[in-house]
Design brief:
13 helices
């Protein structure tokens, strides 16, 4: 039996390692493609790019490991079935569960490792990645000015060109708006026939060389923030054949941001931190609810008591809280008092509505934080459980299909994984938006996988012809035969009646 277990483990370990690294590579490429706009054109060093790749690879492990287990199990048992090795092992009296036992143990170990990874490594990787990505996004991009579109990548300037020579870098028909004057933003405009832009990384400046152009400049003086009559006459018009403009720009060099910016996010915390912070968020949310309940029940009456004297009729009515006839009270008031009372009531109602809306917005924000923290707690467990369930789907399915290699197993694995990903995303969205309770949304896809895995394991253990066309053809033939027989009986009954 030990030799059999070693043989099964050896047959499974190779496909598992191969499919895991292939899946990680594909998911890393997909992740980099998602952030391509933030990375390309920043002039990053190779070490920064490799660091980004490393963090992205760590991030995709929770998605790659279940898919690799599913595909490896399919390939392993498909190869055993295709080469009739599985049939020979069963013929010797070894059941499918005993064949799967060493792989189940290995998958359990991988599930425990996956939980440890998601709880200890993944939060750190997320923190490092998003901090580094934020730093990359904040870095000054290389100046890539598009044709016929205003470019505002240089602080204080807006630049527009009509066309550009990609080989020489020469730009034509330039319009440059100098917005460094924050109050009068369009007092300096330069128009040039052509020009060229260069960057000096060491000095941190942009050198703009312009040819055959005109500069329109209004020297504006300020009096209480407005242009005076005298300053309107301070106008300058310069024509030039060649002009060099040097602009100091900050952020040309890459600099790392502080990691504390993202430490409060739910994806950057382990299980203990999530539980602790969720309790704190519950207290904040409940305080908003309590505050809203207290204020909404007494807000209008408290404000009204302080507004009127104790001898006023309003105070009498409010204190007694027994109003039998509103008309009798209105009859005691003059028209101006009635109008004032109505305006006051309307204004008070608007203030109350605004107060309630503000508290509702705060409550929804805190509830969203609570949902996200609870979702992350459940996600620490759903990924390890998914690894185990994908094995119980892949192994029986491979034994039933009996097709090895990367053909049919890849197709089946991708189908199941897409189904799992769609249902998991749908459940997570419902949980995040509060449509469903968080446990229901986060465990819905896992529950579906459990049902599918139990069904396939049962069918494989009983040697069911689940995917054999002959079995379904027999069922179809029986149904067709029964329909023909029923039709013949109906025809005979009609003949007898005639």
């Amino acid at each position: 039996m030990k030799k059999l277990h070693k043989f099964i483990l050896k047959s499974y370990a190779g496909p598992l390692a191969m499919t895991f690294f292939i899946t990680v590579f594909i998911l890393v490429m997909q992740g980099l493609w998602r952030y391509a706009d933030d990375i390309v054109g920043k002039g990053l060093e190779v070490s920064i790019m490799l660091e980004l790749l490393f963090y992205v690879a760590l991030q995709v492990v929770p998605m790659a490991l279940p898919l690799a287990i599913l595909l490896a199990a399919l390939m392993t048992f498909g190869n055993l079935g295709e080469n009739y090795e599985l049939t020979a092992i069963k013929a010797s009296g070894v059941s499918l569960f005993r064949i799967m036992r060493p792989l189940v143990t290995l998958t359990l170990i991988l599930s425990v490792v996956a939980f440890w990874f998601s709880n200890n490594v993944l939060p750190v990787a997320n923190l490092k990645f998003y901090t580094l990505l934020y730093s990359v996004r904040q870095a000054r991009p290389e100046l890539e000015i598009r044709e016929k579109v205003y470019y505002d990548g240089v602080d204080g300037f807006r630049i527009k060109i009509d066309r550009k020579n990609p080989k020489t870098g020469m730009m034509y028909d330039l319009i440059i708006h100098d917005h460094r004057d924050k109050v009068n933003r369009n007092v300096n405009v330069t128009m040039a026939d052509s020009g060229k832009m260069d960057i000096d990384d060491k000095l941190g400046v942009i050198v703009l060389t312009l040819y055959d152009g005109t500069t329109y400049d209004e020297k504006v003086a300020f009096g209480n923030g407005r242009m005076t009559d005298r300053s309107r006459q301070m106008y300058r018009h310069d024509e030039f054949s060649e002009q060099m403009v040097i602009v100091k720009v900050d952020g040309l060099d890459f600099s790392r941001s502080d990691e504390s910016i993202f430490k409060t996010s739910d994806r950057m915390k382990n299980l203990d931190q999530l539980v602790h912070d969720t309790d704190s968020l519950y207290q904040v949310r409940d305080s908003i609810t309590s505050d809203l309940h207290k204020m909404s029940s007494s807000y209008a009456m408290r404000k009204t008591r302080h507004r009127y004297d104790s001898d006023s009729i309003y105070s009498v009515v409010i204190d007694t809280m027994k109003v039998v006839r509103v008309d009798s009270i209105v009859d005691l008031l003059r028209d101006s008092e009635i109008r004032t009372a109505l305006e006051t009531a309307l204004r008070q109602a608007k203030n109350n509505k605004q107060f309630v809306d503000e508290r509702k917005t705060l409550y929804n924000q805190e509830q969203l934080k609570v949902n996200r923290h609870e979702m992350e707690q459940h996600r620490k467990f759903t990924m390890p459980v998914a690894c185990l369930l994908f094995f119980f789907i892949g192994a029986p399915l491979g034994a039933i299909i009996r097709k090895g290699g990367l053909g049919m197993p890849v197709v089946v694995s991708v189908f199941f994984f897409i189904f799992y990903y769609v249902t998991d995303t749908f459940g997570a969205k419902c949980a995040r938006e509060g449509v469903w309770p968080v446990p229901y949304g986060m465990w819905m896809s896992t529950a579906i996988l459990a049902v599918i895995g139990a069904f396939l394991t049962y069918k494989s253990a009983t040697d069911s012809a689940l995917f054999k066309s002959e079995a379904y053809q027999k069922i179809i033939d029986k149904v067709v035969k029964a329909l023909k027989k029923k039709k013949k009986n109906v025809e005979c009954s009609e003949c007898d009646s005639e």
